[in-house]
Amino acid sequence: MSAPHLAFVLAAGQSKRMRSKTPKILHPCAGKPLLRWSLDAAIAAGARPVVVLSPEIEAAIREILPPGTAVAIQSTMRGTGDAVRVAVEASDARGGEVFVLYGDTPTLSPSTLERLRALRAERGAALALLTAKVGTENGYGRIVRDAAGDVQRIVEVRLATAEERQLPESNLGAYAIDLAWLRDAIARLAPNATGEVFFTDIVAVAIAAGKPVAAFCTPDPGEGMGVNTRVELAAAEMILRRRIREKLMLEGVTFHDPESTQVDDTVRVAADTVIERGCVLEGATVIGADTRVGPYSILRDTTVGARCIVEASVLEGATLEDDVRIGPFSHLRPGAYLEQGVGMGNFGEVKAARLRKGTKMHHFSYIGDADVGERVNIGAGTITMNYDGANKHRTTIGNDAFIGSDTLLRAPITIGEGAMTGAGAVVTKDVAPGMLAVGVPARSIKKAEKKIKT
Fold first, then answer.
1. Which of 78-87, 218-227, 270-279, 412-421 has the lowest mean pLDDT?
2. Which band of pLDDT confidence, cut at 50, 70 and 90, is reported for residue 180?
3. pLDDT of res. 163
4. CA 336 to CA 331: how far, in whole Å?
5. How far is CA 203 from CA 153, 177, 182, in A?
6. pLDDT-based confidence at 200, cuts 50/70/90?
């Protein structure tokens, strides 16, 4: 049985350049905290994460860690080399592969980690590191190669000479390393002139021991970019959102004007769905096949079935079954559940209510804390008055009821199956099945006469 793969994720930095009271690695990026991108990449590459944290942020970070993630505490900030030492001491594994990466590199992909692992095996190297040619105006360590083109050392930019700063290749801070070798080598790292222990000095330790150091220079300059400021956070998010859209398009989703739409990594969209311009899809949103969303719709933690239309509307914590039509300018709030074939038009709002099959609510209405039956017509201006100033109350409307325009339903109340209300009725008492209620306050006056479509 092969030794387990580990990933040491360094996330104890103070991140002062973000100028935020929120720890940098908790800042959201394309739907997930920064740190989760690094952790999820490691897990997807087959590694079990060990995340290195400072005591000040440990409690907040633990809440977002995936199952199985181990935590190591770096009590004093003595540099990245010391952080790796802390991770090594926190792990019981003696051999196998370990990735070392930073918690603020959200664009690092699992395929790149796998490439590093394969390169190290191919070369028989003690470690393989990720590099890129990303210009000279950055804070990354510069790669110094020897005459044969192998990695000779990494120079931290703050310690680099003017000539070294102009070197085109930079270290992106991701490594694949022989863990057994690292356990011995980490003790050889010494503090430098700043008093810190830099993990980049591990290259010099390997070379001094006669160990080859491999490097994969990625052709994608956005791969593995670090985030230290909000400007860099925005740049990383742009890269991630482009990747998310491209992945969905390759899976059969159409985007009209893709750059205008934001999709979180946690969103799932089925094939043959069309996303129009200006949409925002967030959280645990799931969209079925052959659906059209937008233009200018916001879906947050919402489930949408197949063959639906959601136009210029806001849906939060809602569920739509198949063949539902929403909008324009509708608002579904948490707990809204629309069954198959429901139609909801402009300027309608539904909250904590279920509208059953075939019900129509075409415009200017509010339905909250209600259970609405099948094939109900909800006329323009209908309001369920669900709040009495202290408590919320439920409204129940039976199948095939007809709610006239501008009807006010004071909850708790029940409108029976096949019942009707007249325009402008203020209904304060239950209406029996099949009865017509009119007036202010409304009273039942006769059997309802159902209109026949001609």
1. 218-227
2. very high
3. 81
4. 10
5. 6, 11, 11
6. confident
CA atoms in the 13 A half-sphere facing the CB of 205: 20
Amino acid at 227: V
Residue 1 confidence class, pLDDT cut points 50, 70, 90? very low
Q: What dotted CATH number matches 6-217?
A: 3.90.550.10
- Name the amino acid, one letter, at 77: M
Comparing C-alpha atoms, which of 330, 366, 333, 332 is closest to residue 345? 330
Domain covering 241-447 assigned CATH 3.30.1360.180 in the classification: no
User: Domain locations in the chain?
Assistant: 6-217, 241-447
pLDDT at 151: 86
Is 78 or 13 the better-scoring residue by pLDDT? 78
pLDDT at 230 over 90: yes
6-217 and 241-447 agree in CATH topology = no
Active site residues: 363
